[in-house]
Write a structure and sequence with these properties.
- This is YtxH domain-containing protein.
- It comes from Microbacterium pygmaeum.
- It is a single chain.
- The chain has two domains: 41 residues; 33 residues.
- The protein is elongated, with a radius of gyration of 29 Å.
- It is mostly helical and 79 residues long.
- 95% of the residues lie in helices and 0% in strands.
- The longest helix has 39 residues.
């Protein structure tokens, strides 16, 4: 019977710790999410995102042209 009482006490402590930790975790999650949204919507970050997208599109087009050139050269070499 003593073992059961100890086990029950440990279970109750674990449940309380879980509930308190979940509440603290939710609060911290909200803080982090707010900071991430603030950062993402910053005008300087938006400008950097636009520049990165333009650069990626330009590089993709360049790589596609080069791949097409190499494909044509390979087909020509095969016969």
């Amino acid at each position: 019977m003593r073992f059961f009482s100890i086990l029950l006490l440990i279970g109750a402590a674990a449940a309380a710790a879980y509930v308190l930790g979940a509440q603290a975790g939710r609060s911290r999650y909200r803080e982090i999410a707010h900071a991430a949204r603030t950062f993402w919507n910053d005008p300087l970050v938006a400008k950097a995102r636009d520049r990165a997208m333009k650069s990626a599109k330009k590089s993709t087009k360049k790589a596609a042209k080069e791949a097409d050139k190499l494909k044509r050269r390979a087909i020509k070499a095969m016969g």
